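EI: anyone free to look at a 147-residue chain?
SC: sure, send it
EI:
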Amino acid sequence: MLLITQGLSLPLRMDVSEFTLVMTALLRQFEPMFSAGGVDPARLDSLSRSITRAMPRELHAELTPAARAVLKRPFDPAVIHGAALEFGDRIALLATGDLPAAIAALAPPGVLPGRVIDEVPAAGRLLRVALSERFLEARRLTGFQDT
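SC: here you go
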C-alpha cells in the first residue's frame, strides 16, 4: 500500500529484476550497506546516488518508519512486487465490480477463459476475494455496489 500512496506505482510495472534494483536502491537511503542478491553493484550504486540527490528530506523522513520495518524482515522483492500487483487487481475489481473482465485480464496468452482460475493462482485468489462478505461490504461502503 505504501508503494502506491508514495507514488511508486511505476516500479510495479517493471519486471521483478528491475523492481529489485529500484527497491534495493531505495532501501539504501535508509541502510547504506543494504544489498539484495542478483543486483548489479554498479547499477545499484548509480541508482542509489541518483535517489539520494532527488529525494527531499521531508519524503525521507516520511518513508523512514516503513523502510525500517521492511529492513527488519527478510527482503523478498518478488513477494512485495506480487502482493502490490494483486492489491491493484483487487482495487480495480472493487471499482468495476466486473469479475469476468478481471479474471480475463489475468489470463496469459493461450490460456482458455475457463482454465484461468485453475492455472493462474492470482485469479483464484481474486475470485475468492470477490465472493467474500468483506468484499461485498467494501463495495457497499464505497458506493460501488450495483443497485
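EI: The CA atoms of residues 25 and 50 lie 9 Å apart.
SC: 👍
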